[in-house]
Amino acid sequence: MTLVPPHPRRQIPPITILTMALSLGIAVIAVVTFLALQRPWLGLRLGPMPENAPGASVRASMGPSAAIPVGSVLIQIETDTDQIELSSLDLTVEPDGAMGDYATYRRFLARQDRLARMQASEQLTFVAADSQRYIVQPEQTGRPISDLPPDFWVQCMVGLLAWLVSAAVFAFRPNEASARYLLLSGAATLLFAPAAASYTTRELAVPGTLLQWASDLNFLGGSLFAASFVALLLVYPRRIAPRWLGPGVVALYVLWFVAQQLGLFESMTFARRFLVILGVLTTFGLAAVHWRISRHHPLERAKLQWFLLSWVLGTSMFSFFILLPQSFGVDTSPIQGYAFLLFLLVYGGLALGILRYRLFNLGDWWRGVMAWAAAVLLFVIMDLFFLYGLQLSTSTSLAVTLLVCGLVWLPARSWLWQRLAARKQQTAPHLFQRVLEVALAPPGSENHRERWRTVVHSVFVPLEILEIAPHESPSENSVVLEDDGLSMTLPPVEGFPGLRLQYARSGRALFNPRDVAQAGELISMLSHALSSLAAYQQGVAEERTRIARDIHDNIGAQLLSALHSPEPANKDARIRESLADLRAVINQSHEQSDSLAATLADLRAESVERLEAVGIRFTWSVPEKIPATDNTALTHALRSFLREALSNTIRHAQATQVTIQIEIQQQLCLKISDNGCGFDATTSTGNGLANMRARVAALDGCLEINSLVGGTILEARIPLEATPSK
């Protein structure tokens, strides 16, 4: 039997989804704006009177109502066919939390319908509290777009942006349930935010039917918004419930909406606030469940932190400052339009979490943000307590709250910071000591590598440390975060293999940029210790080479002179000089040598004695004026070079004549020639010639050797102010 592979699900390209989402969002905003501009324009901005007194206060007047003074109290509206007294009920911004019961809501809709018909009249009269009458002719062509208040655009833009953000996440994660529920919440926000804008920013009235539809859509959108987040937490950051439960939650909220539409509730506040607030509280309960089960899953914990951060700063603050006070009869409608901005925090945080954006970086600062949010919340609660509980005045309550925060919170924060900083300073020397022990371990041994793994494990406590092959090491030779912070790769360091660390803090956290910085510090410590050790070993090797070179060139020359000296007294003197030179080589006392003129005089006498002892004629030529220089490196190199050259002549050249010429201008030129048998300089393997080359090169000089059958010429040129190079 041949198995036919199933047809892959056809996915819509992300650009198509985004285009469709943008078109739908713009269409919704355009419809809402069109409806808001269709009402006849009065040019009035009205506000309720304090303590629900009758009438309305004029806060701004322009256009058709420019003649009405700002601050006037309007108590009645009249037309040719109707008249009505204005009340605080007519100026209700958001009926959901202010009506109390549905009977009041129906009366409010009836008055709105009546006021809307009067507003559509060609002429109406406003009666002020001082009996002054103001005739206004509404602009029948509609409300100017410039007259729409800022909170209208805030609510529309919140709905549009929330919808676009959720659609963008869905476009790139269409197969994830979390992205689908986020898309549902974005659609809900596009429903309730612009719907609220259509009636919360009205001048005076909106037809009752239109207002009721907008209010119902606002409630439906809010219900779907709460339901989508409850369902979202059933699958995000991991699934903790059956697949049917999420759609079941959404269906429950829809049925609740239908029930209130059918009039099964008497209290409008309960019907339109209870299930929404219950949904908010449920999200915190589900977040607590996720927090517990993700303690060993750092990636899920980081996603949950994004949710908590956005949810606490967004929806919960909206519920605390808007929905909850409305449940107790407090009118918060004047700030509700701007409070919709808090929902953008929700969508931003959730989008970043679902897209796994910089999850590893979240742990560094989300606790601080949450702490500051808690501090602000505590500040508000204290202020309300002093203001309403103790009946203090507004200024006194604010002053006491600031005083308490200043005396308690700021010192506590400073103390905590000092403790954390001190702890970090105490651990740095200890870590450097342990890294130094790693560097001093015998290279190439198992203990050598194991010590490094132990230090790394003690700092980051990963569940697993793996050695990586050289071709798997980071190309930029630096610490790299991988898999959204689940692992961190350390590059190889001078004989130590690269390491891949997985699941930080025993699997309870993600690696973050702070860990990268600390790992970089550890690697820098190890590199510094290894380079310091290498420099020390190189110094030891160079010192050994120097001692060997000086013994070969200087001590060897002195002993050779003593060997060829026929007089016992002279032989003893040469041996004593050799012992003195040996002590000088060991103690580097040549650094306190004589001037150039004195050195040349000593070398002439020494050379004459050495050559005459073996029957070699000697010619010495130096300039009459010798510069007064105290370059100890130059005089020491000159002495060693000349002694080694004469030693080679005495032992190997079979010469009868040696000529030494010294010229001094910008550099010292030493030319030594003999009439010996010569040698092949390209095949010479002795230490003497190599030492001579090394001494001249160390002073940035040059050495030329011309050796033929009839003799050898050595010519060295050394700058007078030369210093030894490393």
Radius of gyration: 46 Å
Beta-strand content = 5-15%
- Tally of strands: 15
N→C terminal distance: 80 Å
Mean pLDDT value: 76
- Remind me, CATH topology of the largest domain? Rhopdopsin 7-helix transmembrane proteins
Biggest sheet, in brief? 6 strands, antiparallel
CATH architecture of the largest domain: Up-down Bundle
Backbone structural class: alpha+beta
Short structural description:
The protein contains 20 helices and 15 strands.
What does the model show?
The protein is of the alpha+beta class. It has five domains: 44-146, no CATH class; 150-369, Rhopdopsin 7-helix transmembrane proteins (Up-down Bundle); 370-430, no CATH class; 441-511, no CATH class; 537-719, Heat Shock Protein 90 (2-Layer Sandwich). 58% of the residues lie in helices and 11% in strands. The chain contains 20 helices and 15 strands. It has helices at residues 14-37, 102-119, 150-172, 177-200, 208-233, 245-261, 268-293, 298-327, 336-339, 342-354, 359-362, 366-389, 394-440, 446-460, 504-507, 513-564, 568-587, 596-613, 632-653, 687-698; strands at 44-48, 56-61, 73-78, 83-85, 124-128, 133-136, 464-468, 480-482, 487-490, 498-502, 617-621, 657-664, 667-674, 702-708, 711-719. The strands form three sheets. Strands 1, 2, 3, 4, 5 and 6 form a six-stranded antiparallel beta sheet that branches. It has a five-stranded mixed beta sheet with strand order 11-12-13-15-14, with helices on one face. It has a four-stranded antiparallel beta sheet with strand order 7-10-9-8, covered by helices on one side. Helix 2 (102-119) packs across helix 5 (208-233) and helix 6 runs antiparallel to helix 7. The longest helix is centred in the C-terminal third of the chain and has 52 residues, at 513-564. The chain is elongated, with a radius of gyration of 46 Å. The two termini are 80 Å apart. 35% of the residues are buried. Residues 1-8, 357-364 and 420-426 have low confidence and may be disordered.
